[in-house]
Amino acid sequence: MKLQLHIFSCVFLGFCVFRKISCGNILVWHTEGSHWINLKPVLDTLVDRGHSVTVLAPNMSFFMDTDEPSRYHYEMFNVSLSLTDRNEWLEDYFNFSFYEMDQMNLLQIYIKFYQLLSRDMVFRLAYCDGILQSELVMDRLLKGKYDMIFADPIHLCSDLVAETLDVPLVYTLRYSAAHILEGLCGKVPVPPSYVPGALSKFTDKMTFSERVQNFLFYAVMDVSTVTLWTKYDKYYRRSTTYCEMMGKADLWLIRTYWDFEYPRPLLPNFKYVGGIHCSPAKQLPKDLEDFVQSSGDDGVVVFTLGSMVDKITKEKSNIIAAALGQIPQKVLWRYSGERPDTLAPNTRLCDWLPQNDLLGHAKTKAFITHGGTNGIYEAIYHGVPMVGIPLFGDQSDNMVHMKAKGAAVIMDFNSMQTEDLVEGLKAVINDPSYKENAMRLSRIYHDRPVSPRDEAVFWIEFVMRHKGARHLRAVAYNLTWYQYHSLDVFAFLLATGALALFIAYKIAKFCIIKCCFRSHYKRKND
Amino acid sequence: MKLQLHIFSCVFLGFCVFRKISCGNILVWHTEGSHWINLKPVLDTLVDRGHSVTVLAPNMSFFMDTDEPSRYHYEMFNVSLSLTDRNEWLEDYFNFSFYEMDQMNLLQIYIKFYQLLSRDMVFRLAYCDGILQSELVMDRLLKGKYDMIFADPIHLCSDLVAETLDVPLVYTLRYSAAHILEGLCGKVPVPPSYVPGALSKFTDKMTFSERVQNFLFYAVMDVSTVTLWTKYDKYYRRSTTYCEMMGKADLWLIRTYWDFEYPRPLLPNFKYVGGIHCSPAKQLPKDLEDFVQSSGDDGVVVFTLGSMVDKITKEKSNIIAAALGQIPQKVLWRYSGERPDTLAPNTRLCDWLPQNDLLGHAKTKAFITHGGTNGIYEAIYHGVPMVGIPLFGDQSDNMVHMKAKGAAVIMDFNSMQTEDLVEGLKAVINDPSYKENAMRLSRIYHDRPVSPRDEAVFWIEFVMRHKGARHLRAVAYNLTWYQYHSLDVFAFLLATGALALFIAYKIAKFCIIKCCFRSHYKRKND
């Protein structure tokens, strides 16, 4: 394996010299799930361009198959957590998101969510321990002579390692509470008047009442998060905080774009590279192509609930299958659970689907999705209208974005009945506005000066060429929160003003007394 | 002339079809001075790409030579102002900037500046009248069937005409008080803690005292500007304001970049295309090349005070010429005034210089500049360190930027003595840090995903293709200032909180009285 890699490196180096580009040595921080799926095409492009890519991978991972032959080198580390513990947490989280949440009041939801996040933080820090507390791993990283670290900041401690290795750090971020990670740590201004809080399900166009709620939502989320982060701050231990360390990243590659986001302020070191993983559709395998073609003019509907959710309850699957049976389209449903009793002949269940190739097929009329960013971006890329059945995390918010842009309808997973889904499907398939809006988003996606993948690769290479991107970093990162918001200036001006008023008052009083006293004295003497 | 243009249009149309791009019909708003010089290369590129470009030109212009053979069509309009009136104002303005300002206190400067701006506003509105009040011109513009208007917003009313013609509007802007035009009208967040007020001469790294001054500077400038703008608002007459109309522009092409600017927030419809006019150096004319080569290893210094200033006082020119005579380099000085008595043999005076080609010459060691953006960008492009002698407008601020980035020293035009200039020149030529920093800025300039001119052209074409760029426009433009800053929300929450406290107090009071009364009653009855 090592010899193979050495040969690879030599070939790459030759390739770089030939193409007159400087080849870098990139350390990629471990990540998981759809984040890993999203990252891989960028890593492939970096390898194609002759860079050496090493991926930090834990001994327990859902998605990183480090045994498979790969174009990257894997740097392994051990995490003292069992996969069972993690799975239990995941199951709890899914149960909460799918079923329990609907039975709870706001306070209960808040407490449960806070507890889940607290438990999750322990896991995240265990991953940090696996790297930072292991002399062997740290020694290998030091000896690796990396030119930069490329990390998704939802997995912690890349900033600490970047500091130890003294190399630049580039973040790639999707799941973000805009007003928290990007706002508090990334120093991007986030006016609550038109930037809806992440998970708030508001759009950028808010009524007065929504703006009030959004304002309060910001306050609650900010306070909760900063409170939660004290655990991270303790781990970070130095004369800094977790959030301050995040602010040291050279560049943030945000994995959305203005086809998906509501336009909002950014800083020069924030680059929007949404749809980084998208690519033109390839030919389908023969059996799938035959199935799709057999749909005739009605076309097909593609349905998946994402890479994290394989099974749903029998009751739900029956409701869904019954709905799918009522539309004239054929349906391809990625589902590995028990076969629903109501499954109609027009619907085919598959353990896996070539999602991107299907969405790019001319016969595809709609996409039923859980609202993960990767799937949404493939639908945008190919201009396919969506029916969203969001399940957890940012999925509800994502689908609200697509609905606001007129390219989707949203179902509520818990309360959804057969007729709701039928109605939703008929709407996006038969009402031409959904297709038109999906095509408009597709045009926006495709019509930009540089493709998202090229832009991401450009900035990664830029950071390696220049050992950072200092010219894009605002001074905001060096200010405390009260300096940033000019609160010290405001307090000073207020105090000065008050003092000036007080002195003026005292002088006036003195003059009046003097004046009255004199006239009083005068009158007395007269 | 008209036939020629018709043939041109046909050729262009054929060219467009051949290149499979849709050719547009662009109306360019009149502009002046360095703004016009800066715009021309973009217009040339647009013409090269097959678009039809029509430039609105007034009958009186300093820079637009509408009689010269040109690749653009000129749409003429009359302004009822004499060139003498305008020249008088300019002379007043220059006198104030060059000489009077130094003898004045802050209040006097403020009042004089306010008066000058007020007089200037009358001129600007006269240009608007020349277009909007002329049925003939407006009729021709309506019949022109333009696809968009491309305008520098320092010249007014392009927004009103864009609304009348119902076409998208793209701004190209350099001279801007960031916190006024871009902040108040463009809705870009401008935190006073690290975004220095335009003309304040602060950098982004401010001490507490500077932050206090900057905060106050914002307040004074904002209030003064909004007061001044009431004159414009009256002219705009409709249910809107001058500033609100500016906010309707589809896109803002800002003619700076992060080589020049301090990193600060932006919005997605703000594109930084600084150095849009720069190009590689061409071969010098033989006599100039011989002069440059004759400098040997010492090289040459290029000196110009810009396109607006031809002459300075005899005293000043003698001070400058004496300094130039004391350096070993040869000097090329663009100067059409009286020959200074102290002029040394190493200095050649010229009425005009091929500035860009000279700055790109290997033998050029330094650039003495008034600090206009165009010249600075050419110096950045070629990596030449600068000695700044700022005269008026944004020039002081521009040079402060270059000094902060370590690529320039600054002279004070009024107090500068011969030895100051000699010292400044020796510093930037002999201290390698200036050259290194200039080269660093040059690398930043050149190392971006798309060249500034290509990016500007891309977005202009985008706006024509999509009839705007709505997906980049933040909802901020639809909010009032108090909604934008959540002041109504804040007031509501404050009022609600106060009411809740009041009710709680009343209830508590009621309970206490009830309780006391009962015990009192009880005791009485016992």
UniProtKB/TrEMBL annotation, chains A, B:
Question: Signal peptide position in this chain?
Answer: 1-23
Q: Does the keyword Transcription apply?
A: no
Q: How does it sit in the membrane?
A: Single-pass membrane protein
**Enzyme Commission number(s):** 2.4.1.17
Q: Which GO terms describe its molecular function?
A: glucuronosyltransferase activity
- Main localization of the protein described in the UniProt heading: membrane
Keyword Transmembrane tagged: yes
Reactions performed catalytically: glucuronate acceptor + UDP-alpha-D-glucuronate = acceptor beta-D-glucuronoside + UDP + H(+)
Gene Ontology CC, one term: membrane
User: Which Gene3D superfamilies does this UniProt record tie to the protein?
Assistant: Glycogen Phosphorylase B (3.40.50.2000)
- List locations, semicolon-separated: Membrane
- What InterPro entries does the record point to? UDP-glycosyltransferase, UDP_glucos_trans, UDP_glycos_trans_CS
For this UniProt record, give its keywords in alphabetical order, as a comma-separated list. Glycosyltransferase, Membrane, Signal, Transferase, Transmembrane, Transmembrane helix
Family named by the database record: Belongs to the UDP-glycosyltransferase family.
**What is the protein name for this chain?**
UDP-glucuronosyltransferase
Q: What is the lineage of its organism?
A: Eukaryota, Metazoa, Chordata, Craniata, Vertebrata
